[in-house]
Amino acid sequence: MAESWTAPAAAAEERADIRRIGFDALGTALRRGWADFMATPTQLVFLCILYPVIGLVAATLAAGREVMHLFYPMAAGFALVGPIAALGLYEISRRREQGLPASWVNVFDVLRSPAIGSIVALGVALAAVFLAWLWAADAIFAATVGQLPAGTDLRTALFETAEGWRMIWLGNAVGFVFAAAVLVLTALSFPMLLDRGGGVARAVATSVRAFAVNPLPMAGWGLIVAALLLLGSLPLFVGLAVVLPVLGHATWHLYRLVVR
User: Fold this and answer.
1) What does the alpha-carbon distance between residue 180 and residue 231 come to, in Å, rounded to a whole number?
2) Can you tell me the distance from the alpha carbon of 120 to that of 111, in angstroms, rounded to the nearest whole number?
3) In degrees rounded to 5, what are phi and psi of residue 18?
């Protein structure tokens, strides 16, 4: 499918221009993302990916009470690696934008991208950030609730002790720092690599400049992503089969609205 990759080689070296956008651009991106999802539904693909992962996490938690405290950090930390899961969706949106045939099968075309090396490198970096977040969450638990007497009920420890509330406040504060850093560094990095190629540093720098030029709209985008991921997770994670594809397509369109 060589015709799918039409970006000129020079684009990989050019400094991308950043447009100023308003909050209305976020609605435009979401509407276009929804249109892509309706035209090329991929919820079955995401269900096939989500439920084995959820089952593995559940089995791990069931295997020992000592890791039960990591359930929330694992669920919340999914947003840190969400851009990796959305790569195939960016490709579908890109093909539809160019008038090329697009179906769920095209999610695998990313593997043939000229920028696959940079994409993998950035993906590995995000995976490392996710592991660092789990380590930090475990350390916070050990320094707070982990100091309570053995056998203390987890619900009681969390909501009826000073240690529990310290863990909640500190854990969410540290989690916010991780999420904000990943959002700023990678919100537009993967779409740019897929679209223009080039190196990881250039893509990340472009994403950072997009936040510098549009701090409030881009922060608003982060809040929208967090809210939709939370809503999609509530009914036993089933809603993520729709939320994740829509957000993935919408992120591509946000990239196109911001970067020129």
Assistant:
1) 19
2) 10
3) -110, 125
Residues 151 and 215: beta-carbon distance below 8 Å:
no
Helices first, then strands: H and E counts in the chain? 11, 0
User: Is pLDDT above 60 for 2?
Assistant: no
Higher pLDDT among residues 188 and 9, named by residue: 188
Residue labelled with tokens 């790569």: 87
166 or 231, greater pLDDT: 166
Q: What is the DSSP track for 34-90?
A: HHHHHHS--HHHHHHHHHHHHHHHHHHHHH-GGGGGGHHHHHHHHHHHHHHHTHHHH
Q: What is the pTM of this model?
A: 0.86
**The pair of three-digit structure tokens given for residue 7, joined into one six-digit string:** 């970006």
Per-chain mean pLDDT for the chain: 86
pLDDT tens profile 159-176: 889 999 999 999 999 999
Residue recorded with tokens 């850093």: 181
Angle at Cα 248 formed by Cα 244 and Cα 250, nearest 5°? 115
pLDDT at 248 over 50: yes
- Residue 71, CA distances (Å) to 49, 56, 213, 230 in order: 18, 12, 36, 14
Distance CA 10, CA 130 (A): 34
